[in-house]
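Go through this pair.

…
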Amino acid sequence: MWPAIAPFLPSAAAEVAPAIIHPPEPGPRLAAPIVMAHGLFGFRRIGFGPVTLAWYFRGIPAILEAAGNRVLVTRVHPTAGVARRARKLGERILSAFPDEPVHLIAHSMGGLDARALIADDAWRGRILSLTTIATPHLGSTIADFAKLRVGRIYDLLDRIGLDHHGFFDVTRRAAARFNRQTPLPDWLPVFSVAGDPAAKDVCWPLRRLHAALGELEGPNDGLVSVRSATAFGQALPSWPLDHLRQMNWLSQGDPDLSRTVAAQYARVVANLVEHGFGI
């Protein structure tokens, strides 16, 4: 996610929403664990002691676990660059599953972290598949614009020692360089998903961005265009969800929306089952 929506994140993330409603039939199940990677500005959990205020993937791990899947939601630096985040992602995986291969499901910038990870041959055989959701594989015009508009803020972050290189890594120029350095691996099943909601279904923090990006890059989820999100790996059907609702944010009071979110993640797992990874 991007600096353009940072002011809206606390209210969106901390919203107390109903739990995702489980589908009536058992969901698909994988033999190996699922590792979920968050995006820019992301987190695993916000809370105080045992009290949880918000989850990045709100209710989504529970729906996958209810089907018998083992799920790890990782936590990396929220604003650092891809290289640093990828190293931490690898450490989290090794700590949780030192002797098992895993499936990666990564949202937004988390998909770039995962790509950097699998570019290291040491992970060959340890990662069974990668599915990216709304990952800016080609960068985003919004990130380019943010770099121009808030460059002075980046200078301030430099002076206080806060790593903010992640903001630069989702620009279009950085994406072009990254794509040259991390080509599609020939040993790994890789899938990509884009968000493509109707304008009326975009949540309020993203409506203006969705309209602006639509004029510049075409269909999009409010932050990442369909073209950018599906530029790496085999494209799966697009989701009718914007960038925030892909995490089940801002779905309070709308059980149908929560069911839609649950169904989309179940389809991601079902795709992996169809490729021979199920039980």
In short: The chain has one domain: 3-274.
